[in-house]
Amino acid sequence: MDTKLKSSKFGKVIINLIAIILVVITSIGMLASYKAIDKIASGKDKNYFQSYEFIRALSGMSYNSLYDIAKKSTNDDITPYDLLVKDDIRYGKDLDYINNFNTRFQSYTQRYLNLEYFAVSTKDKVTTSNGNFDIKVLENGDIDIAPIDTDYYQFYIVINYDDLGKAIVKDIYGADKNIVQKQIYEVTPSLFGGYYNELVEIKNINVLLAIPRELNYYDNISEGINNLQNEIYGEIAFVFALIGVAFIIISALLIPYNKAKEIVGFRAISKIKFEIGCIMGGLTLALTLAASMFMVNECIKGVPGNFIGAFFKEITLSHSTYYAINFIVWLIIFSLYFYAALVVKHIFKIGVKKYFITSTIVGGIIAFAFRYTKETIKTLSEIDLSEKNNKLIFKIVAINAVILAFICSIWLFGIIGVIIYSVVIFILIRKYADEISSKYRILTNATKKIAEGNLDVEIHEDLGVFEPLKDDLERIQSGFKRAVEEEVKSQKMKTDLISNVSHDLKTPLTSIITYIDLLKEENLSDEKRNQYLDTLDRKAQRLQYLIEDLFEVSKASSGNITLNIESVDVVSLMKQTLLELEDKIQNSSLAIRTNFSKEKVILQLDSFRTFRVFENLVSNITKYALENTRVYIDIFDENNSVEIILKNIAKEEIKFDVNNIVERFVRGDESRNTEGSGLGLAIAKSFVELQGGTFNIEVDGDLFKVIIKFNK
């Protein structure tokens, strides 16, 4: 067991080590691709100085040059608004409008600190500049660009504005002249935004605008150049990043699921709800895009930008530090994709359906709604129609109102929600109604079969709302079956009664008739006559006893007996019975064993009927008990009752039904060879029950036991 435990721990360490190595190798591979990214990006033909935004900035700075020249020419305290806004628009503007225009104009140069300019008026040769240009102005007012050092400047342009306000690109470096010229005609100055239709045209000046190779300020120009580089580098870097993502996802998917479960963090991340996981996935993708667009370019150039530079604005980082930060970021990104692949593997392992129900918020809500709907339908199907169900109806209506209120609160989508909700409710109600109809048909079919006399019909289906009716129908069915069985039994008993009574009455009566005929003989001797008379007397007495017993059991069954209740000592009464039947007991060769209380056991009984019960039971024992066996008679005096038990071994094998042996004219010997009416046990049972007692018979093999119980 210790070996297995160590092996399990070792396997867990190995799979985690493999996962770490995969992520580290992918991250290092991404860093190694930076040289290829730089080489590919360098060959991309995208020029910021030909962009729409930059051309707008050139137009805006030309207005700035126009204003500077105007101030120098007039030596007046002229405002940008006074000079640059058309006359027909300038008058009538309020003070806020004027101040806003001037403020925006004055702040314009702060947005383009890296843009150096030199301007000259073609009329009076007045110049203005914000740089250290060593520029000469020619006789015709053109600008001599010969001194411009292209090693220092990465871009310059000379724009001549004639007396009609037409802008012509005279000279340019760092961009395509035709492209720039075309855009100058089309763009509006970025400086003034919505004011450009209100500006005067630039006339009679020549402007030189230049951008140094080394940008000393972080302004709109440096940001534009950086963004363009980020776009170029980002597109390429993102492709390499996707290759790394594909590698890490495939690697994760190749790991067996039972091993993947042992990776640190797997269990926690697999429990994250799907919607939250999607948000995390979106953030991971956004981080991948941001790293590709901004971080890679920063690292390759070794200058702060919009990614690392946003966090380390005041700190100068070494190139190796940039690479270290890049490694950590890519390590995080590829780790997230690795875990995302494991989650996908987990989804397909447990099943999309199960995952949707157990690990998504929407699935959880749907599952809850489904469970609630199912429970509601089950509750409705089990509703007790015999009682009022106001609470249940109110609960369903209230919950339905809450659902509708929530759906309607979603504005336009609420209408769609109500439609969907109504369709779902329709489907559920239709399904519920179909189930009720189906269960009703089952119930009516069973009822028809019972009505046709088939009392063995069984309903195995759950009838839901009709379940109480099913129970009632089963009780009715059971009652009918008992009634039919009782009726059949009664009819059989009547037939047996007639047969038995006829037999038992006919036997002594036949004997009487026979012996009467014999007595009619004239030559009959006195001895024979006396013998025949004795036989006639016995048969007549037997017939009398039989008729008396028949009357007794008839009156007992109908309850037409008047009991003489008195205090009776059942012990003494049993002893008296045994004494009177001593001859029969001795002739039967039975040994009677009694277990009586030494004290009196007094009960409120009819002494004559109780004696008759004891007499019949003991007589039966002498007739049907096995010779030379012991008979046990016990009387137990309990706290609240008295039990009288008689036990004997049967002479014949007990094949009869103990429940039928107490019926009228039923004997233990079906051949009816023994004397008796077959009414002894029936009379005994009837007399016991008339006095409030219970009479039961138990059989264990050949042991026959009668148990009589009277409450005190």
Automatic annotation (TrEMBL):
Gene3D superfamilies found in the cross-reference section: 1.10.287.130, Histidine kinase-like ATPase, C-terminal domain
UniProt keyword annotation of Membrane present: yes
Coiled-coil spans in chain: none
InterPro entries reported in the protein's UniProt record: HATPase_C_sf, HATPase_dom, His_kinase_dom, HisK_dim/P_dom, HisK_dim/P_sf, HssS/ArlS-like, Sig_transdc_His_kin-like_C
Ranges for domain Histidine kinase: 500-712
SMART domains: HATPase_c, HisKA
Signal peptide positions (record): none
Subcellular location: Cell membrane
Record field: catalytic activity: ATP + protein L-histidine = ADP + protein N-phospho-L-histidine
Keywords noted in UniProt: ATP-binding, Cell membrane, Kinase, Membrane, Nucleotide-binding, Phosphoprotein, Transferase, Transmembrane, Transmembrane helix, Two-component regulatory system
EC numbers: 2.7.13.3
Keyword ATP-binding included in the entry's annotation: yes
Membrane-spanning ranges: 12-34, 236-255, 276-296, 322-343, 355-372, 396-429
Pfam family, any one: HATPase_c
GO molecular function: kinase activity
Membrane topology: Multi-pass membrane protein
Enzyme class at the top of the EC tree: transferase
The protein's name in its UniProt record: histidine kinase
Provenance organism: Clostridium gallinarum
